[in-house]
Amino acid sequence: MEQVLRMASMTTPSPTISCYIKAKKVSKLPLIVKCQQPLEEPNNVKLPDPITRREIILRSSEFAMVGAIFNFSGKKPDYLGVQKNQPALALCPATKNCVSTSESVADLTHYAPPWNYNGGRKMPVSRDVAMKELLEVINSTKPDKFTPMVLEKKDDYVRVEYQSPILGFVDDVEFWFPPVKDSIVEYRSASRIGSFDFDYNRKRIKALRQELEKKGWTSQDSF
Fold first, then answer.
1. I want to staple 197 with a disulfide (CB 3.0 to 4.6 A). Which of 45, 97, 184, 211 is the partner?
2. How far apart, in whole angstroms, are the C-alpha atoms of residue 188 and residue 171?
3. pTM beyond 0.70
C-alpha cells in the first residue's frame, strides 16, 4: 500500500513546480520524488500586467527627475522684452515653436494677430483695468496644464514663464501694451528649447484669448 505526501512548492526562476513523494508504508528504500510541471499558458505567451495608477505616478516622478538632471527648462533668452531700435516684441526664430504679433502676416507659421481689449465693449476701459484682467486670466488659465509664473510686470509689459507638468520645459510668454496703439495688446509665446512644440504656444494664446473675450476683448483677426 502506498502513501502520497505533498511537498512544499519549489520556487525556481521558472513557474512553480509541484512535487510529490511516493513511498511504501513499510520500506527501507529511498523515497521517490516526482515533480509535475504546471500547464503552459497558450502559445507560451504571458500577458503583461496592467499599469496601475501608482506606477503611472511613479513614472511621472521619474520623468520629472530626468528633466531636472538634464535641465529641460533651458535658459532665458537675452533678447526678451520690448526691442529698443524699433519698439516691438522680438521676432521668432526659424523653429516652429513660437508665435508673435511682430511677425509678418504672410508668415503663417509664426504670425498671430494682436488683441484689442476694448474691441467688444460698449463702455471702454483703461489700460490699467485691461492689465488687471490680463493678469487674472493668466493666473487662472492653465492650457495643457502648463503652470504660469509672472516674473516681470510693468505698466505696459508682462513676462510669464509657463512650465510643463512633467519634464519641466519652459515657454516664455510676453504681453505688451504699445503706447501709440490705443487698446491694442501685442504678445509673443515661444519655447526655449527644441524645434517644434505640437502647437502648444498657439493653443495657449488661443485659450487665453477665449477667456479674455468673456471680458470684452477681441482679436484683430481670427486664428
1. 97
2. 10
3. no
